[in-house]
Design a protein that fits this description.
The protein is α+β, with helices and mostly antiparallel strands. 36% of the residues lie in helices and 30% in strands. The protein is built from five helices and five strands, in the order H-E-H-H-H-E-E-E-E-H. Strands 1-5-4-3-2 form a five-stranded antiparallel sheet.
């Protein structure tokens, strides 16, 4: 079942975020945005803000939102940074995990980020039900 859900998410979310859509003033503003939209399951806003605006039609975004809401029927009660890998020249990779204590449902988020001093750019992101897929990106 998890492999099927991972395949659906891979088709829904290609993992590419274009820089012009995904610029944040600071790491803290990026972190606040990601935590808020994932915990409240606003996947459409997550995809749009992190670069999917040019990748999907409005109908595809609605469909992706609907599929993700069916996979995650309740808002997440907890979550945060699980692992951050610092690279060179302001680049980093991170994994965030979100869960719901009532139904033990987990959502795994990956991002490849560049902090260029004047802001933070999300270069690539992925959302998945399968931790192996996300941790495999590190």
């Amino acid at each position: 079942m998890k492999i099927l859900l991972a395949a659906i998410l891979a088709a829904v979310l290609p993992g590419v975020a274009w820089a012009q859509d995904s610029i944040f003033k600071s790491y803290e503003s990026y972190e606040r945005f990601v935590d808020t939209v994932i915990k409240t399951r606003d996947f459409k806003q997550l995809i749009n803000r992190l670069g999917g605006r040019d990748e999907y039609t409005p109908e595809q975004l609605r469909s992706a939102q609907g599929r993700l809401l069916s996979i995650y029927p309740r808002d997440f009660t907890s979550g945060g940074l699980a692992l951050r890998q610092e690279l060179m020249n302001g680049f980093s990779k991170e994994v965030r995990i979100y869960w719901n204590d009532a139904i033990l449902s987990y959502c795994y988020y990956y991002a490849f980020i560049h902090d260029h001093g004047d802001g933070v750019v999300v270069l690539k992101f992925d959302l998945n039900t399968n931790s192996d897929v996300i941790f495999g990106k590190l």
